[in-house]
Amino acid sequence: MPTDPAIAAALDRMFRRTTLGIRPGLEPIRALLAEIGNPERAIPCLHVAGTNGKGSVCAMVESVLRAAGLRTGLYTSPHLVRFNERIRVNGRSIADAELAALLERVEPAALRVESRPGAPRPCTFFELTTAMAFEHFRAAAVDIAVIEVGMGGRWDATNVIVPVAAAVCDIDFDHMQYLGPTIEAIAGEKAGIVKPGRPVVTGIRRPEAAEVVEREARAQGAPLTRAPEAVAIRRTALDWRGQRLSVETPERRLPPIRLPLLGDHQLWNAAIAIALLERFSETAGFDIPDAAWRRGLESVRWPARLQVLAEDPPTLLDGGHNPHAAQALAAALRALAPRRPAGLIAGLVADKDYAGFFRALAPAVKRAWIVPVRSERAGPTAALAAAARAAGVPAEENTLDAARRDAVEWARGGNGVVCIAGSLYLAGEVLAGEIGERDLYET
Description:
This protein is of the alpha/beta class and 443 residues long. It contains 16 helices and 17 strands. A hairpin with a 2-residue loop joins β3 and β4 (92-93). α3 crosses α11.
């Protein structure tokens, strides 16, 4: 939280709007954006949806475009340590002074809109944040903004834009209470970001989900690229510092790249990012030099995604919180440390699939420490521990600090590795202890 009392108070008022919940409908965000002059229409955008991987894709795309000389905006959620991380220009989180100016402009605009007779429902926290991001990007005169969908797509507050191009990343079960109980229903919501005639890139493993998005693209006359078919990526080396990649597309063959993001799933995400960048390049008429591709991908930063916190013993931090993400984490642990036992420190919020999460990780994990999450939505540690044990993983409840001490001692005694995973709230708590008052994205 910013140290300036006025900013902290304004953000607190915004956070209180989370009690409004997640509510469908674009009328409130459209009314708010109109009140501040429709900043979303002033900037070209790329739009990215998906269950897993969309943040990584956004981070890679933005890093390459910045390396190519463009002034970039990046809007992602949630934040890990400070609210400012959600809105970044040229790789830097919004400064407190800029945030204060935005709050002074956008919050009163929301109150004006909400006070009018016949006004739509009050704006949610995420709608206000989204309006602030667009306004900041307009004021900063960015050349391109990369926009991550918050949840779903069709009714997400970011879906007021008509992007240069869009991408739909992998789709799996998550947020079913809002998006629907089936993969087809979830895919239908995410397909809502497809716009008439605008290129869309997909990277979806489930055929039934892919078909929903492809059907929507055909209906909208949106040229579709299947990233796994358009981008050939091969890993040639792997260590704790990253993975060395060979990348080839019909348009280019890139020089060898060391991607600092770990995990097989990041190769899939990189294919989506590269395909989206190529569609942007074609549509916008902007050439991305080979050197920018390499520099951008090699310098990408996306914390709490298989992030290496320490080397003795190896300690990983990952924000994966659903069974699909847990499967990717388990595969990464097996690839990085195939003959070393892994200890898991885990915490989740209450609406997640505990059983599925621990079942996915059980083949790669020998022991677990269950810790509380700092959120009113935190899942009971007793229920989490029971789910871990039911999946065959010995588990105990503990505080985060004590769990880290125990896990490190356990790993050092048996040549093991430690992985902290689950809620992004937990990842944020860990990172706050690592960085102090610094910006999480400072180099």
